[in-house]
Specification:
The complex is a heterotetramer.
Chain A: E1 37-42, H1 58-64, E2 72-74, E3 80-82, E4 85-90, E5 96-101, H2 115-126, H3 134-138, E6 142-149, E7 152-157, H4 164-168, H5 178-181, H6 185-190, E8 198-204, E9 208-213, E10 234-239, H7 243-251, E11 257-258, H8 263-271, E12 275-279, E13 287-291, H9 301-310, H10 313-321, H11 350-359, E14 364-365, E15 371-373, E16 376-377, E17 379-385, H12 391-407, E18 410-416, H13 418-426, E19 432-433, H14 444-449, H15 471-482, H16 486-502, E20 506-510, E21 515-519, E22 522-523, E23 526-527, E24 534-535, E25 540-541
Parallel strand pairs in A: 1-10, 1-11, 17-18
Antiparallel strand pairs in A: 2-3, 4-5, 5-7, 6-7, 8-9, 9-10, 11-21, 12-21, 13-19, 13-20, 14-15, 15-16, 22-25, 23-24
Helix pairs in contact in A: 9-11, 10-12, 15-16
Chain B: H1 13-43, H2 50-54, H3 64-73, H4 80-92, H5 106-141, H6 143-159, H7 162-176, H8 189-218, H9 221-228, H10 233-251, H11 253-270, H12 276-285, H13 289-317, H14 319-323
Helix pairs in contact in B: 1-4, 1-13, 5-6, 5-8, 5-11, 5-13, 6-8, 7-8, 7-11, 8-10, 8-11, 10-13, 11-12, 11-13, 12-13
Chain D: E1 5-14, E2 17-27, E3 32-37, H1 43-49, E4 57-59, E5 62-65, E6 68-69, H2 75-84, E7 86-89, H3 103-114, H4 119-132, H5 138-143, H6 151-162, E8 169-173, H7 181-196, E9 200-205, H8 208-214, E10 217-222, E11 225-231, H9 232-237, H10 242-250, E12 276-287, E13 290-301, E14 305-309, H11 316-323, E15 331-336, E16 339-340, H12 346-349, E17 356-359, H13 373-381, H14 388-397, H15 414-426, E18 432-436, H16 444-461, E19 464-469, H17 472-478, E20 481-486, E21 489-495, H18 496-501, H19 506-514
Parallel strand pairs in D: 3-9, 3-10, 7-8, 8-9, 14-19, 14-20, 17-18, 18-19
Antiparallel strand pairs in D: 1-2, 1-4, 1-5, 5-6, 10-11, 12-13, 12-15, 15-16, 20-21
Classes of the chains: A alpha+beta, B mainly alpha, C mainly alpha, D alpha/beta.
Chain lengths: 543, 324, 265, 522
């Protein structure tokens, strides 16, 4: 239930640096053993379709990482590395890309990986009938794919897209067997066919997905620890939504790996030798509270700053996350190379807040100690999505509610189920909101802060919750998205972030938490440097 | 329930049972129809566009075309009465529709999960009955002291919420003692804690009822008569008291069924046990209307079957009903 | 033994009522006051039941949450018994066809056993304190209705009503002087027994995340808040749960006590 | 010869309460010893002490059955005695069989417990036994449950199970209570036959008539002690103890009208004109395919009593309900004080309801359990204001202390309850009182008091009674005119004495013959 809608739209961007990501490297001397079944318990929602082309959310990415592969991947340093594509070249005008495919790679249905397959996949992603949202939007600038020769596919673009490689590195744009894609969507959803190290054999809804090793596997990414087939004989992918029972299951050894580990369990895990933690923050935006600048009182910058100054985030994080989450002062995830951090803008300072409010005209206080201005109480409506904010985060909001009260803010927390939450956003009746957002690269800023992002889709959904409408910012973001000159790009994004942070549109909290816990008998598991999903290719069981 | 049956002793089995059975079946059909109708019109009260729900709820950015397609696919564009008739028609042939969230026929989803729940419920029922009987027997022999103690035990057991019991059991047997798995794994070991969680409160209720009727029976003239005939305590308990305890217990069966299903919702969720209880909860959380309706109807059917069977059992155990 | 438990039960109920009416007497602190740096403290002298994720004193929260929690139980029971009373009286007193109709209707409701009806209701109106309370009320109504109906039928056929008729008493007199008062007796027991169960049900819904939500200092909400921390900080769930169990048990014991007295008389 | 049973100075205590004290008696084989007493006199407990089933602490100088000392005998030994050597016919024919088990099974139990026999043998024997006990179609009956049997058949079945192993002692605790007269006679004959076959009988009864017929030795018990004992002949002809005398005097059988059953003197009669107050013509009522009442007519004059006698199912109670207009007759009508009654609409009947009152067999259940005696009477007086004086006066008029007004009926004795019922009935000063088995569940002495009270009230208030009972003794004593009913029809009607002296109808004759009357056995 956690945050499966977060990566609704994911677009490309440059390098990604896995700060906390540690692979549980096998101790020297102990060689990997082949065989065994690994049980993975996920707390994320169960996918409605195992083909990440359809829709395209994080739960799909998690499991698809085991049986699907993308054209390119990334290394820890955040640089694009070969995977199914061995090399690629961008044309001078940036309007066409040639990808050379790896030789004699076969899909698990026996069909070969070739340019037709790539073309078919792009076509599949762009076909409205597929109902792809993530992949579809990632390929917005791609007009088509032409077959140059059997192993060379040419992408043609409408405008230059500096984010294309990052887009293609994501599991939502993984390459599947063209033959398999021709089957009905229902069938393809049950048993998608890729080139990955494992094969989906059975999916018992609401219970588990069974995966077995692909013995013919030969296409690991360049940064994999070994070559050839995976060590594990099989994976059982269980759905355990309840975090407490998930952790208990791990403790008792009923399962080997869990995701969405809660802060307290991480601390507990540290104390035992049986468990190992992997911290793999998701790319894209940091977790932050967005201040709706389109309506009073946050249409006044001073009030926005006052709120931010009066919110004691650090204490809250210490109390709730036990040091498993690091305070962020950035609009972007700490894994984003181009993210800039501005701690001084977000220091906790009640005095400053009070001063700002006085300047803004919120001088009186009512009997409850809330600020009042010409009869109106300084009241803030804060719809909280119980689906997208983990309990610790909801508690954090409660604590901010308490600290900002000192400054005279009256924060009304409204825990809502997803549809009501979207309703509240669509009605533009909120002053504060927190919506996690996974996507690779700083281009996320364009989604989140471009004026276009304030126009609701038919369903009422829109991404720019802060409702920043700044032509200068828009211009910066568009240019950044098109230039492939890294220097220029960096500076453009820096200016953009200065506007966003300096305008007090957001209150950054911490990276999008993404913690895995493993039994120490499980070796070699690592999170993909792309969107931090764990891959079991190198994993083996020492028991 | 009990309809007048020819009291004449010589009336044939057919004449005694047939009309009763027919009436019961009629009742079952009627109730199922009513349940289906209630649910059908109830879900029309759900705010928001069902078509949107089908496509993954708000935020799914469903295009107008997709919405229209969904409406057509699910027949939502037809007039309500027509939809209702189609709905009934599909029900009649056992088609419960397509789950929004799982993209699977509801009947398959239920099929996959029903077994687990039934197993859980059945075992729990047996265990509960055993516990209750034990307490009842103890208070029948152990005298007023025992009776008082077991009555307190029963009240406590009956009042404990499933989730709290489950948590306590997990803390004790899994986290602390590490004897039993905290989530149900295939096999007997995984069944123990869920069964206990379901059985203990049920045992509380059953025990209260059974103990009272057993004690009443033990104090009744016919038991004195039996003793005067030379019957020993055992004989009195097994031959006389027990049957009298059975009647109210059987009467509770319908209720117990409900209690077990409701309990299953909690237990299956906490112990991550596959079953319709868990399916139902996730369906509720995701507003997966067809699945919710499907489960509701299946459970209603189950309830009707249980009550019919218990009625039958009642009439077998207690001839007084037949005479009426 | 019975007496002892009865006394204990009454004691608990007195405590609860006191907590509901004058929480500050029992726990002077502020249930919403946060102390981020004292979060997740285990039970101690300072915090008998420990503290929660925001360093709030759980004992204080439980005491201050009593009112809301009992209110939910009461409201649900009131809804349930209220509806039941209408149905029960219609069926018990009305003409035969009305009785038939009502009983069939109740049978249909019975086919939504236990939580099922509540869940269906929540699907329609969405989760929350109010819906879960109403849902529990509706879900329990048919059970009460059946009891009340049979009670009414028993009293209706009681010789003393016939005696009143023979004495030339009018329907109004028979209804209000004899029938209703005698039904009311069992109704009272029903309510006492019901409150406990309603609280348990409502809290179960909260635990499943369909009922009350944080930060309200309500037991169900505290449960759902503590749920995620159960493996590390058991007291966050244990103590609110304990109070739910206690209130359920004590009301049940009290109800049974009254029932016993009723039987003796 | 030494007696089969000998009891010396028996005393039984429950906790601190001594319910039986210093009781001594013997029983010879082939003879019947009877214990007479009213409820609570300890007679049943005395009997059960022989089975070791008192549930209290038993002490005695001697408590011997044949060679066995029952005081020291082990539980196993006692268990083996029960059913095999000592048969027990328990009180309350209607509840002494497990309603859930076939009658035959219950009887077979005795055999199963004490003999090594196959199920087949047992079922064969069971049928024989039922036959012996005078049950028609024994094979069928054996397979039926008590609910499907009449009271008489049940009692016979119980006896069958008690005598299954030819016990040497048969304890019969109130074997005929709540049975119809003719049925009662049959049961008594059966017991008599067993006695004559050499079985020793210990008979427990409150009914001297029953006792006098069977017993050679009689003990009269009161509050746990034997007040008088001796041969039944002596006891009946020349009772020594005043209590014995009172008991004998209290039996209404063969006692002329207005003869006092208690010491209390009669009140002077008021003058009344004997006009007809209540008359029914051609009353008929059908339930399903059962013709409960079939063309019943009668007339009741002021200040007089019309008795309706009949066995259970004879339709007498239905007549009462029709007369009270609680049922609508299918045909015929009732008129009250010469005006139409049964055909009125309830609303127009209501104002005249006070003219006709009723008392029932079970007085307690006719009181609202929530109300005190005072409240009940105040309601019936129709005086909304708290008229304590009237209530006190009313209580006195039925011989109760005004202090009872504060009590709840269930705390009163059976006799007191019936008196309160009467008080309530007469409160609105009715002309007619319908008495449906008003004394059937009362001890004989209490019954006597109530009957005398009714007598007094009739005289002082000029009341007219419609007196319904199954007890010929009572009806003969109470009524001026009599209707004998059977299967809903009036088989005989006329002045009571005529009917009793020369009954025209064959059934009436049988009925009267069956009615037990006190006679010394020679």
């Amino acid at each position: 239930m956690k945050r499966f809608l977060s990566p609704l739209i994911a677009m490309a961007a440059v390098g990604l640096l896995l700060v906390g990501c540690t692979t549980t490297a096998a101790p020297r001397g102990s060689a990997p053993v082949s065989g065994g079944t690994l049980v993975y318990a996920t707390g994320d929602a169960e996918p409605t379709c195992l083909d990440p082309h359809v829709g395209g959310n994080y739960p799909q990415a998690l499991v698809a990482t085991q049986y699907l592969e993308s054209l390119v991947s990334k290394n820890k340093a955040g640089d694009i590395i070969p995977w199914l594509a061995t090399k690629w070249t961008e044309s001078a005008n940036g309007l066409s890309w040639d990808f050379t495919l790896r030789k004699n790679v076969k899909f698990t249905d026996g069909t070969p990986l070739n340019a037709e397959a790539v073309a078919a996949n792009v076509a599949h992603l762009q076909d409205p009938a597929t109902g792809s949202s993530t992949g579809y939007l990632a390929l917005q600038k791609v007009t088509g794919v032409t077959v140059v020769n059997d192993l060379t596919a040419r992408f043609t673009l409408s405008t230059p897209d500096s984010a294309l490689l990052d887009s293609l590195s994501q599991p939502w744009l993984a390459i599947e067997s063209a033959k398999a894609l021709k089957r009905s969507q229902a069938v393809n959803c049950e048993s998608p066919v890729g080139t990955g190290p494992f094969i989906v054999t059975k999916w018992v809804h609401q219970q588990s997905i069974s995966l077995v090793r692909n013995d013919k596997y030969n296409s690991p990414p360049a940064d994999a620890a070994h070559t050839g087939p995976a060590y594990l004989k099989a994976i059982q992918w269980r759905f355990l939504p309840d975090s407490a029972s998930r952790y208990a299951a791990l403790q008792s050894g009923t399962v080997d790996v869990i995701d969405n580990a809660q802060p307290d369990t991480l601390v507990a895990a540290k104390k035992t030798k049986d468990l190992v933690a992997i911290d793999a923050p998701r790319p894209g935006a940091s977790n932050r509270i967005e201040l709706n600048s389109s309506i009073a009182p946050f249409d006044d910058k001073r009030v926005r700053e006052a709120f931010i100054r009066s919110a004691d985030v650090n204490d809250a994080i210490t109390s709730l996350f036990f040091g498993t989450a690091k305070r962020s002062y950035s609009a972007l995830s700490s894994v984003e190379k181009l993210g800039i951090s501005e701690p001084k803008l977000f220091t906790y300072d009640q005095k400053a807040a009070a001063k700002l409010l006085d300047e803004a005209g919120w001088t009186q206080r009512n009997s409850d100690g809330y600020r009042v201005k010409d009869g109106k109480v300084l009241e803030l409506n804060f719809p909280v999505s119980t689906n997208q904010s983990i309990p610790a985060e909801q508690s954090l909001f409660e604590q901010l509610q308490a600290t900002t009260k000192q400054a005279g803010f009256k924060v009304d927390l409204h825990p809502l189920d997803l549809s009501s939450w979207y309703g509240a956003l669509g009605a533009n009746q909120y002053n504060l909101v927190s919506a996690p957002y996974t996507k690779v690269g700083p281009d996320v800023l364009r989604i989140l802060y471009d004026s276009d992002g304030t126009k609701p889709a038919p369903s009422g959904y829109f991404a720019n919750h802060s409702q920043v409408k700044d032509p200068a910012l828009d211009a910066l973001l568009v240019r950044a998205g098109e230039t492939s000159d890294q220097k220029e790009r960096a500076s453009l994004y820096k200016q953009a972030q200065d506007i966003i942070l300096g305008g007090y549109y957001i209150l950054p909290l911490y990276d999008q938490q993404n913690h895995y816990l493993l039994r120490s008998t499980v070796k070699g598991v690592r999170a993909m440097p792309t969107v931090s999903t764990p891959t079991m290719y190198d994993a083996w069981l020492s028991r | 329930m009990a309809l007048p049956v020819a009291a004449a002793p010589r009336s044939s089995v057919a004449r005694r049972w047939l009309p009763w059975l027919l009436l019961r079946l009629g009742g079952v059909v009627f109730v199922l129809w009513a349940v289906a109708t209630v649910t059908f019109f109830a879900i029309r009260l759900i705010p928001g566009d069902p078509a949107e729900a089908i496509l993954g709820g708000p935020g799914s950015q469903a295009s107008a075309a997709a919405l229209a397609k969904a409406r057509a696919d699910f027949g939502l564009d037809q007039p309500l009465p027509l939809q209702y008739l189609h709905y009934l028609g599909r029900l009649a042939v056992g088609d419960l529709g397509q789950s929004y969230a799982l993209r699977q026929p509801v009947i398959t989803v239920i099929g996959q999960n029903l077994g687990g729940t039934l197993l859980l419920a059945a075992v729990s029922l047996v265990v509960a009955a055993a516990i209750a009987l034990g307490l009842a027997a103890w208070s029948a022999w152990g005298g007023p002291g025992a009776s008082a103690v077991s009555s307190v035990l029963e009240v406590v057991a009956a009042a404990v919420p499933h989730f709290w019991l489950a948590i306590s059991l997990i803390l004790l047997f899994s986290t602390t003692l590490d004897w039993l798995p905290p989530v149900s794994i295939p096999g007997a070991a995984g069944l123990i804690l869920p069964v206990l969680t379901l059985a203990i409160p049920l045992a509380g209720f059953l025990g209260q009822v059974m103990r009272e009727s057993i004690l009443d029976a033990m104090a009744s003239p016919f038991v004195l008569a039996a003793r005067a005939r030379g019957e020993g305590s055992n004989g009195v308990f097994w031959r006389h008291a027990l049957r009298h305890a059975a009647i109210p217990a059987i009467g509770l069966a319908g209720w117990a069924f409900g209690a077990l299903i409701s309990g299953a919702v909690v237990v299956e969720t906490i112990f991550a046990r596959p079953g319709i209880g868990r399916s139902l909860l996730s369906a509720v959380q995701q507003r997966d209307v067809p699945l919710v309706v499907g489960v509701v109807i299946v459970v209603a059917l189950g309830y009707m079957l249980v009550t019919t069977l218990t009625d039958l059992a009642d009439r077998l155990v207690d001839p007084r009903l037949r005479a009426r | 033994m019975r007496r002892v438990t009865l006394v204990l039960a009454v004691a608990v109920i007195v405590f609860l009522v006191l907590a509901a009416l004058a929480p500050d007497l029992l726990a002077p602190g502020n249930p919403l006051a946060i102390h981020p740096l004292q979060s997740f403290r285990g039970p101690s002298f300072a915090h008998p039941f420990g503290t929660d994720e925001s360093g709030r004193d759980i004992y204080t929260r439980i005491v201050h949450g009593t009112g809301a929690s009992l209110l939910i139980g009461l409201a649900a029971t009131a809804i349930g018994v209220g509806l039941a009373l209408v149905f029960g009286l219609l069926a018990g007193l009305g003409p035969r066809w009305l009785d038939f109709g009502t009983t069939r209707f109740l049978e249909v409701l019975f086919a939504f056993p236990g939580l099922l009806f509540a869940l269906l209701f929540i699907v329609i109106y969405g989760p929350g304190v109010v819906t879960s309370t109403v849902a529990v009320g509706l879900a329990t109504a048919p059970g009460y209705a059946r009891i009340i109906r049979s009670q009414v039928l028993v009293v209706r056929r009681a010789p003393y009503l016939e005696a009143a008729l023979v004495l030339g008493r009018g329907p109004a007199h028979r209804l209000f002087r004899h029938l209703l008062p005698n039904v009311a007796g069992s109704l009272f027991v029903l309510v006492t027994l019901g409150i406990g169960q309603s609280i348990v049900w409502a809290s179960s819904l909260s635990y499943l995340g369909l009922g009350a939500v944080p930060p309200a200092a309500e037991w169900g909400a505290m449960l759902s808040a503590g749920r995620t921390y159960i493996s590390s900080f058991w007291w966050m769930t244990f103590f609110p749960g304990l109070f739910i169990v206690l209130s359920a048990i004590s009301t049940t014991v009290l109800g049974r006590g009254i029932q016993q007295r009723g039987r003796l008389s | 010869m030494t007696s089969l049973v000998s009891v010396r100075n028996l005393s039984v205590t429950f906790g601190r309460a001594e319910v039986v004290a210093g009781v001594s008696f013997d029983i010879e084989a082939g003879a019947c010893t009877a214990i007479v007493g009213e409820s609570g006199s300890g007679k049943s407990v005395t009997a059960r002490s022989l089975l070791g089933l008192t549930g209290g602490a038993v002490r005695a100088a001697e408590l011997r059955f044949d060679q066995t000392d029952l005081l020291t005998a082990s539980p196993r030994r006692l268990q083996r005695l029960r059913g095999r050597d000592i048969g027990f016919v328990s009180q309350g024919a209607l509840v002494a069989l497990d309603p859930l088990r076939p009658v035959g099974r219950e009887i077979a139990d005795s055999l199963r417990l004490h003999t090594a026999s196959t199920a087949v043998e047992r079922s064969k024997r069971v049928i024989e036994l039922l036959g012996e006990a005078g049950v028609p179609q024994p094979a069928l009956r054996a397979s039926q449950r008590p609910g499907e049997l009449s009271g008489g058949l049940r009692q016979r079945a119980i006896i069958a199970s008690a005598i299954a192993l030819r016990p040497r002692l048969l304890i019969a605790d109130e074997p005929t209570t709540a049975l119809d007269t003719t049925v009662q006679a049959g049961i008594l004959e059966l017991i008599e036959r067993l006695r004559d076959q050499g079985t020793a009988i210990l008979l427990i009864s409150h009914d001297l008539a029953v006792v006098s017929r069977l017993a050679s030795q009689v003990l009269v018990m009161k509050e746990g002690r034997v007040v008088e004992s001796g041969s039944s002949a002596r006891l009946i002809d020349a009772p020594q103890h005043p209590y014995t005398r009172r008991l004998l005097n209290a039996v209404p059988t063969d006692r002329p009208r207005f003869d006092r059953l208690t010491e209390a003197p009669a009140v002077p009669a008021a003058e009344v004109t004997p006009d007809v107050v209540l008359s029914a013509s051609g009353l008929s009522r059908q339930f399903g395919d059962l013709q409960a009442v079939d063309d019943v007519s009668f007339r009741l004059r002021r200040g007089r009593t019309l008795g309706i006698v009949g066995e259970s199912g004879s339709g007498k109670t239905t007549v009462a309900r029709l007369t009270l207009a609680l049922e609508r007759p299918d045909a015929g009508s009732v008129s009250l004080l010469g005006e139409p009654w049964s055909e009125l609409a309830e609303t127009s009947r209501r104002p005249r309801r006070p003219r006709i009152g009723a008392i029932y067999q079970d007085a307690l259940s006719s009181f609202d359990p929530r109300l005190t005696v005072g409240r009940i009477l105040r309601d019936s007086l129709g005086t909304p204001r708290r008229d304590y004086l009237a209530v006190a006066e009313l209580l006195r008029s039925v011989g109760l202390s005004p202090s009872l007004a504060a009590r709840r009926p269930r705390l009163l004795s059976g006799g007191q309850q019936q008196r309160v019922a009467i008080a309530r009935a007469i409160a609105p000063r009715p002309d007619v009182l319908i008495c449906d088995e008003p004394v059937s569940s009362l001890d004989v002495s209490v019954q006597a008091q109530v009957l005398d009270l009714l007598d007094d009230l009739q005289r002082s208030l000029g009341l007219s009674y419609l007196f319904i009972t199954h007890d010929l003794g009572v009806v003969r004593h109470m009524s001026d005119d009599l209707i004998v009913m059977r299967a809903g029809r009036v088989v005989e009607a006329g002045p009571t004495e005529d009917v009793f002296r020369n009954p025209a109808d064959e059934y009436t004759r049988k009925l009267i013959a069956a009615a037990p009357r006190i006679e010394a056995v020679s």
